[in-house]
Specification:
Layout (H helix, E strand, L loop, with lengths): L4 H16 L4 H10 L6 H21 L3 H18 L7 H17 L9 E7 L2 E8 L7 E7 L10 H8 L4 E5 L18 H12 L4 E11 L2 H11 L3 E7 L5 H4 L5 H11 L4 H9 L14 E6 L8 H9 L4 E6 L10 H15 L3
Parallel strand pairs: 3-4, 3-5, 5-6, 6-7, 7-8
Antiparallel strand pairs: 1-2, 2-4
Helix pairs in contact: 3-4, 3-5, 4-5, 7-8, 10-11
Length: 354
C-alpha cells in the first residue's frame, strides 16, 4: 500500500525543523520508514518518545542525572511532534501533550541553566512559561520567545540556549492558542494584552531586568511579536522570524492539517469562519506603530509564509529595522539554524545592552 501523501508532505515540510529542535536524524529515518498512514502519526511518534522516556528513567535510577536530563528532553520533543498538526484527534493530542509536559518538567532541574516554571496571571487563568537565567547573572535582560501556530514553548528549548549563552534570560511562553494555554484560550490578535502581564510579572522579580525586554517570535509568533511591540512601550527590541503580515493570505495555501489546526485553535466552527479570524491577524495599520529596533528574518525558500510578507513589515515599521533574507533558508530557517539562532541572539543581546 502506498504511503499516505499527507505523511510525505509533512515530512518534506518539517524534517529540518524536527532535527533542528532535537530529534535524532536516525530515529527520524526509522520513524519515516514505519509511517504509512497519517492516522498512525501520533501513535508512532509516541512509541519512539516512550523509548527515550524509558532511557531517562533507567539513567535516573542509576544516578546518571546528565544522561537522564538529555533523554527526558528528547522524549519531550518527540511527544511534542507526536501531537504536531494532530489537533483533529483531541484524545491522542491531549495524551501526547501531557507526556511532553511530564518529560520536559523532569528535565527542568538538570538543564543548564535550570528551567523555572512561571505562571503569569491572565484573565482568570495563567499563562505558563519556562524562565532560564544565565548562570552567575544577578539581573539579566530578558527575551520572551513566542512559538507559532503548531508549536509550543517546549519546542523553543534549543533556541533559548542561544540567548542564555549570550547573557540574556529566555522566557518561552504559551500564549492564547498555544501549548497548554490552547486548552482554555483561543488564538487572538491583540498580543499586547498578553505580553503586558508577562512584563508586569518580570517587574515583580529582582533576578531579571524588566527594563530590558525583547520579544522574539517564529512563524505565527512572528505576527504576535511585532503586534505586541506596536502597542507595548516597555518592549525594547523585537525579532520576527518568518512571520505573516496578513495571515489570511497564507492560511488557504497551507496543508489541510495546518488549516485544521488553526480552525481548532482559533475556536472557529468551520473553514469560512477560520478565514475570517485569520483576517484579524494582520499588521495593516499596526506596523507603523513599531518604534523599537526590529529584526526581520526570512528564508527565501519559505513554502509556508512568503518572504514578501517580511518585506511588507520592513516597509511599514517606523523604527530602526533590519531585514535579513537567507537565500538558502526554509520556513523559520530551520535548515540553517546555525545562522538564524546566532543572528537573533547576538542582535537581541546587543540591543538590550543598554
Amino acid at each position: 500500500m502506498p504511503r499516505d501523501a499527507l505523511v510525505d508532505l509533512i515530512l518534506s515540510h518539517f524534517t529540518p525543523r524536527y532535527v533542528a529542535t532535537g530529534v535524532d536524524p536516525h530515529d527520524l529515518a526509522r520513524l519515516a520508514a514505519r509511517l504509512e498512514r497519517w492516522e498512525d502519526w501520533c501513535r508512532e511518534w509516541s512509541a519512539e518518545a516512550a523509548r527515550h522516556e524509558q532511557l531517562a528513567e533507567e539513567a535516573r535510577a542509576r544516578g546518571r542525572e546528565v544522561t537522564a536530563t538529555e533523554a527526558s528532553l528528547r522524549a519531550a520533543i518527540y511527544y511534542h511532534y507526536a501531537k504536531h498538526l494532530f489537533a483533529d484527534h483531541p484524545d491522542e493530542y491531549r495524551q501526547a501533550h501531557e507526556r511532553m509536559l511530564a518529560c520536559y518538567g523532569a528535565a527542568a532541574a538538570g538543564s543548564s541553566p535550570p528551567m523555572e516554571r512561571v505562571e503569569v496571571p491572565f484573565e482568570g487563568g495563567v499563562l505558563p512559561g519556562w524562565l532560564r537565567r544565565p548562570v552567575g547573572a544577578a539581573r539579566s535582560p530578558v527575551a520572551i520567545l513566542l512559538p507559532g501556530l503548531d508549536a509550543c514553548k517546549e519546542e523553543l528549548h534549543a533556541w533559548s540556549n542561544a540567548f542564555v549563552r549570550r547573557g540574556v534570560a529566555s522566557f518561552t511562553l504559551d500564549g492564547p492558542g498555544q501549548g497548554e494555554t490552547a486548552f482554555w484560550q483561543p488564538i487572538r490578535p491583540d498580543w499586547e494584552t498578553v505580553i503586558g502581564p508577562v512584563i508586569d510579572a518580570f517587574e515583580q522579580r529582582t533576578d531579571v531586568d524588566a527594563g530590558r525586554v525583547a520579544v522574539v517570535g517564529q512563524s505565527l509568533g512572528a505576527y504576535y511579536a511585532p503586534r505586541a511591540a506596536a502597542f507595548e512601550p516597555r518592549i525594547k527590541a523585537c525579532v520576527a522570524n518568518c512571520g505573516p503580515f496578513d495571515f489570511s493570505l497564507a492560511l488557504p495555501e497551507m496543508p489541510a492539517c495546518s488549516r485544521a489546526t488553526f480552525r481548532v485553535r482559533s475556536g472557529a466552527a468551520d473553514d469560512a469562519e477560520a478565514l475570517e479570524r485569520a483576517r484579524q491577524l494582520s499588521l495593516e495599520g499596526v506596523a507603523q506603530r513599531i518604534r523599537c529596533p526590529l529584526l526581520i528574518v526570512f528564508g527565501a525558500g519559505d513554502r509556508i509564509i512568503p518572504p514578501s510578507e517580511g518585506e511588507r513589515l520592513a516597509r511599514a515599521a517606523a523604527g530602526p529595522t533590519e531585514l535579513v533574507v537567507y537565500e538558502d533558508g526554509n520556513h523559520v530557517c530551520f535548515n540553517i539554524s546555525y545562522k538564524f539562532r546566532p543572528l537573533t541572539a547576538d542582535w537581541v543581546a546587543e540591543q538590550l545592552a543598554l
